[in-house]
Amino acid sequence: MNLTDQDEIGNYVEEVRQALGGLPPAAREELLEDLPEHLAEVLAEGGGTLVGRLGSPSAYAAELIASAGLAEGGEEQPRRGGLRGQARDLRNRAREATRQADVRVGPLLGYERASEFLTLLRPAWWVLRGYLAAMAFTYVFDDNSAPIGLLPRIGGSGNEVVALVVLAGFVLGSIWLGRREPSKRMPRLLFKAGTAALVVFAVVGFFEADGQARQSGYIDAGYVSEYDQIQDVFVYDGQGGLVKNAQLYDQWGNRITFGEPGCVDPVTGNWSVSRSMGYPYCPDLAPFRAGERVWPTPEPEEPAASPSATATPDAAPSFLNPPTRK
Question: Is 109 found in the same domain as 34?
Fold first, then answer.
């Protein structure tokens, strides 16, 4: 800030002070307490003189009186006096704590005050604010069927070109508002409230995106065996006969079990405990009948052609009737 800006701020503050001459000294100093800092911010944003941006000092003083809830004679409005006094105390404490933090943190950043460093970051904040506003806008009007991404999309997987156009529009609008911050008290309060809402949205969105990024993509498919549905086992011997009370063991001597030791009546559907000591639990439900044993008729052997020749039967005994289903 140069000397010309300081002179302009000083003259504007002095004229506002004169316009507030009808107020009590305490009320007047309270209204003028943060005025120089606000005027410095207005000049730093550019866009004209203080009179051109904020109006005449007398008009600005009248606005301060109206926004503070003071009557023309300098008396506070009775119905708002108690609450306003408490709010004033809280505001003064917050301002004092902010000033102390500003002075203490400034040297750590290489500046006399931290606010001087933050002033340099305003353009970056305008861009970030536009990005957050675009993300909040699309989040409100989206069906939220997809996780939050990095671009302001509407419809989950919208066109990237449309998302970039929306983002550019909000960023340019944020820069435009940054260069033309509202001068009146109520619009300024609404503007700051909207900014605070964007900050809250950014914090919530950050933790949500971080949680989604940390989620594992592993899905436990489970183990499915073709033997899971086996309820009974039927063992047949070499002659096709059903073996009762059979016991099954693996190569390590561990018993192999399937199903539950019981039978279901195919007519009534009732389940009853089996009396068998092994497999099958339900012999009456065997899927195969025992095959009949048939021996082939041997044919006469041919005389040996030489002492070393031996007769070989044309056919070997076999089971001609394998087990058949009922």
Answer: yes
